[in-house]
Design a protein that fits this description.
Blueprint: E1 7-15, H1 22-30, E2 37-38, E3 51-52, H2 66-70, H3 74-90, E4 102-107, H4 113-126, H5 135-139, H6 143-152, E5 158-159, H7 167-180, E6 186-193, H8 198-206, E7 235-243, H9 244-249, E8 256-265, H10 278-291, E9 300-302, H11 309-323, E10 331-333, H12 336-339, H13 346-360, E11 392-399, E12 403-410
Parallel strand pairs: 4-5, 4-6, 9-10, 9-11
Antiparallel strand pairs: 1-7, 1-8, 2-3, 6-7, 8-12, 11-12
Helix pairs in contact: 3-6, 7-13, 10-11
């Protein structure tokens, strides 16, 4: 696109099941650490799924004062913590910046189902007069973006994208667009989720979407023939995006550049992706067209790769549609093989993986992939790839309702 501002990444922050900072998360990715264990947040013994990828050792007081922490549910706490790390890495001096030009685009797929569950129980057992005054502002999904805006004094555009499992990717994509067209100089963008609750686990299990495996090594196994569903995860991923001119003017370290974004709808089914992968393929095609790159230039695809039968099969078809004959050669892996499915946070954490892959020329494997599926017949790697330059990377997210989103990042060149 002509006359659009270039958009770069200058900071990143992460709260994940395998590390509560970008450094810890990335070291765990390279160590092929998996974050799956029996659910500890509630008694899941009667549920069909018993494993989850929970965030561990998270103390909100490490990132904010006690009063602020008490006024936030966990999904907002995760977002603030990840945003704090991202802003600090970016080197932004907010006291010197025009904060009306710094916006927020942080989404959550569910908000706080915990608060809904607790409030419903209070009404049932004690009556409506005992409901917490802050119940609603603590549970609604826009409060991740709202709390980040308030905590850091960011007065620009503030939005909350909610597109189920595409939320994190689309939140970053819409932030990218906002900077491209001049609505903001800087956007703090990403996704957050803390939805390991009875309602969510019970609901996804009823859909037969969750893995019933009790073996952490055979539970989240994207593209494996024996896959039987995803492992629910949680966490947050937040990045600082800036216009290139703003980043260069302040001498920022640039981690990567976003050069393409595609968003489509399947218009097909409330839970299943389009069976031929057509919608996801168009999202990838739109991203490549915007970036003016050919399929052969894509070095790596960080797949949505949930470990459900339908998703992995239809995403395989989508890659074939979008990349044609080159589809069989491109390196593909799913970070969900280590951190499970973080729902609204997934795409944002995976985008951080993409940026680190570009920075270090490291493409992680599909951890746990043992039994190759003849229908998922692309280059789903089982060992790290470290001997190849990583210049262009696609990151895919596919959400319930038919939402498809793809980001295309590249190694920065001045």
């Amino acid at each position: 696109m002509k006359n659009m501002k270039r958009v770069v990444v200058t900071g990143m922050g992460a709260i994940t099941p395998i590390g509560n900072s970008v450094e810890d998360f990335w070291n765990s990715v390279k160590a092929q650490k998996i974050g799956f264990a029996p659910i500890s947040y509630f008694d899941a013994s009667e549920y069909k799924a018993h494993l989850a990828a929970e965030v561990k050792d998270f103390n909100p007081k490490d990132f904010m004062d006690a009063k602020s922490a008490r006024r936030m549910e966990k999904f907002s706490q995760y977002a603030v913590a990840a945003a704090k790390e991202a802003i600090e890495e970016s080197g932004l001096d907010l006291e010197k910046e025009d904060t009306t030009r710094i916006g927020v685009s942080i989404g959550s797929g569910t908000g706080s189902l915990q608060m809904i569950e607790k409030t419903t129980e209070v009404i049932r057992t004690k009556g409506p007069k005992r409901v917490k005054p802050l119940a609603v502002p603590m549970l609604i999904s826009n409060m991740a973006a709202g709390n980040v805006s308030i905590m850091f004094g960011l007065r620009g555009k503030s939005i909350n994208v909610v597109t189920a499992c595409a939320t994190g990717t689309q939140s970053i994509g819409e932030a990218y667009r906002s900077i491209q067209v001049g609505e903001a100089d800087v956007m703090v963008a990403g996704g957050t989720e803390a939805a390991i609750t009875p309602v969510t686990v019970g609901g996804f299990a009823a859909l037969t979407a969750l893995s019933s495996s009790d073996d952490p090594k055979r539970a989240s196994i994207p593209f494996d023939k024996e896959r039987d569903g995803f492992v629910i995860g949680e966490g947050a991923g937040v990045v600082v995006l800036e216009s290139l001119e703003h980043a260069q003017a302040r001498g920022a370290k640039i981690l990567a550049e976003i050069v393409g974004y595609g968003a489509t709808s399947d218009a097909f089914h409330i839970t299943s992706p389009a069976e031929d992968g057509e919608g996801a393929a168009r999202a990838m095609e739109f991203a490549m067209k915007e970036a003016e790159v050919e399929p052969e230039q894509i070095d790596y695809i960080n797949a949505h790769g949930t470990s459900t039968h339908a998703n992995d099969l239809f995403e395989t078809m989508a890659v074939k549609k979008a990349l044609g004959d080159y589809a069989k050669d491109v390196v593909i892996s799913s970070t969900k093989s280590m951190i499970g499915h973080g729902l609204g946070a997934a795409g944002a954490i995976e985008f951080i993986t993409v940026v680190k892959s570009i920075e270090e020329n490291y493409m992680h494997p599909n951890v746990g992939l043992k039994v190759h599926d003849e229908e998922c017949d692309l280059n789903y790697i089982t060992e790290p790839v470290t001997d190849k330059e990583v210049n262009y990377v696609l990151s895919n997210s596919l959400g319930f309702g038919g939402h498809n989103a793809t980001l295309l990042a590249k190694k920065f060149e001045g």
